[in-house]
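Review box. Two proteins, two foldings.
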Amino acid sequence: MAKAIMIQGTMSNAGKSLLCAGLCRIFKQDGYRVAPFKSQNMALNSFITEEGLEMGRAQVMQAEAAGIKPSVLMNPILLKPTNDIGSQVIVNGEVRGNMSAREYFAYKHNLVDDIMKAYNTLAAENDIIVIEGAGSPAEINLKTEDIVNMGMAKMAKAPVLLVGDIDRGGVFAQLIGTAMLLDEDEKPYLKGLIINKFRGDKTILDPGIAMLEEKTGIPVVGVAPYLNIEVEDEDSLTERFSGNQEVGVIDIAVIRLPRISNFTDFNPFESMNGVSLRYVHHVSQLKNPDMIVIPGTKNTMEDLLWMRQNGLEAAILKAAAEGKIIFGVCGGYQMLGETLSDPHGVEAGGSISGMGLIPMDTIFEEEKTRTRVTGTFGQTGGVLSDLSGVHLEGYEIHMGVSALKEGARPMTRIEDFVAKSGMKDDGAQKGNVYGTYVHGVFDKEEVAKAVITSIAREKGIDASDITGVDFQAFKETQYDILAAGLREHFDMEKIYQILNEGMPE
């Protein structure tokens, strides 16, 4: 069975996901078979495996760093929030149902067998498992039958490294306070401390590190610098949303919906010279973009009503009337139609009118579509004509079925990547309004570059300096940079010692 090491954090967004990815790459580089694991993930960004199963994107990112294919075994439980007090519960990649927070809290102990079956399968196939916790192990109101922090550490007999975020301030109180609030039977599992996102001269920090080790009796095994690494973020805490709002030569505005999901769809544009990708949640931020993107969402109807109430829908309709490019992905695509109906109460129930930019009706069904797909763009009209015939790959993950009406034509022809069940139409286009159900549609260099080239030609701009990248190859370089940065600032000899010693039986 594999040895295990676990990364827990003093809070959400302390950097657990990224540090787990870095350790996965380091162990891979050192010749070990390594796999990531997170028993329970709460996120709106998800991924469909080749088997058609759904898992959190953080473990997909970590699997890439480990050099292996993503498997739902790495994330047996995924919670996708549907509102402020409830989530869709996905177990072993398939929807188990919607539960309120209280219902899930009472139910989660039933999932221990699923968690351990997944973990033990991975452990039998690998040398090392890098486990990620969630939130903080010191959330004392959630400790009962914990299955993701110290509860998981106990089940896997995994030593724990605790990460604190110095960039937010108060890192010493974070680490010491968390250690103090652990139960007595949990404290032996805490074997090392990590200070993350440090900027500046580390020698100034050394007296604090000495005090930290003295007060906790636990060694500090690393002070990770603030690394500017371009890999996929776990959830909406991402700094991308509050990032640069400066307008580039070619400007793309993504609507930051309240329940935005799979916003990693648009990451490829961030690495292109002269292109600005801005997330906007208010009309005043929209400005005059070349393309407006409406992304995926966990609750299409409610997020459409949110846009209707705050004026963004009216602004998008005005931009469409002026000939601007409007591009919808998944839930954003559904919003572009004429009607959205929810007869089974998959979302809020009932029916509402859509934006009316594409003659199309959408009905939400009880069964979720989950497939990996490959295909090509059809004869694309309007500004984005360079997309015609371009190859694409991605995945579908949605509850709705959309039926086109007269005046709209399909956007792409796709088929199931694994089942090879035959080609089918996907998406729609009308004028400069485009939509698709395919997540990851821009990941291939040819697609992103065709979009930017088309826009540049429409604006009369020389696009020769606006280059795309092979996004998969780009991410590989980022994982190597991450690993190198951690090797330089981590005591890897001590971390290997903690890993090899494990926990006593």
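Next protein.
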Amino acid sequence: MLDLIELLKGNPYPGRGIVVGADCVYYFIMGRSINSRNRIFVETEDGIRTEAHDPSQMVDPSLIIYHPVRKVGDDLIVTNGDQTDTIANMGDFRKACMAREYEPDAPNYTPRISAIIHADKSFEISILKHAEDVADGADRCLREFFAYEGCDQGVGYFISTYQGDGNPLPSFAGEPIRVSMPDPDAVWDALNADNKVSLYTNVGGEVRLFNKNLGD
């Protein structure tokens, strides 16, 4: 098991990340461009959404304005894009993920990461990413799914869009990482000060939002 704080401190740009634990869920967003950094999390009736902090600076909302978190029945859906709505509307996590693919932002081909947490504490995590080393150069989507019957207290599973900074950005590789589950303030402090934008935490049903643009 890795220390989530040390993992985040050692990575200046994991992009967007999801951590699912026994009774807590974290989701964070980071940004390198002015457009990506110009965001905040706001609460909605069934979860949260991203909004432009300064609407006058918004250039293209297509991949940065969405509902990262939605509660549907007894399930909590957490994703890094508008696939949240696809999962909620279809009512089938795997079927919905099979209908989507990575983001159309070549050359990064940002992965779509998603999780669904059930009332019995079981959960699934998915990553949809651009397949590498395809012989004919075709664009193909690699869809990976990881199902968990739950996890121990103090333990979580972490997945992010990128392995780190770069140009193009290297997609996350391998299974979700088994990590320790620190408190929300420690996670916010561990994210790179220049690149972090917002953090959602849900610990035992208590939701907190951290927004750099609002002074957090």
